[in-house]
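All the exercises in this workshop are built on plain-text protein records. An example says more than a description, so a record of this kind follows:
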Amino acid sequence: ADRLNRMAGNVVTCPSCATKNRLPVAAKGQVRCARCASDLPWLVDAGDSDFDSIVDTSALVVVDLWAPWCGPCRMVAPVLETLSREFAGRVKVVKVNVDNSPVLAQRYRAQSIPMLLLMDRGTVVDTMVGAQPAPMLRSRITGALDRRT
């Protein structure tokens, strides 16, 4: 039921033509507007049961390990939304609530949050702990994109 609720909420408005598009939670490639084929911002929620399939994509994945009670996590959320639009077609942002996903919190040793993981084809290539300013996040994402082969 939790996964169905997340899937139902994944609708994004195309920044180019304003068409509403339902985003797939998991997909191998990029997500594009059904009307104009522009790249769409891709920001989804994941949990213990569906994380692996959600991060299995050709896009660079930014995983946000967060919790609703965490003030710095709430500061990072709008920055990640902005960056998902800025890097549309190249980056997928995956939000994981560590309170609801203890297996993932343990797997990635999320002792301090927010914790951001940059993943390239399932491998963690960079880790950031704490609320980072937008220019720092943008720089780390750009660096990871530049290093892709």
About this structure: The beta strands are 11-13, 20-22, 42-46, 60-66, 91-97, 115-120, 123-129.
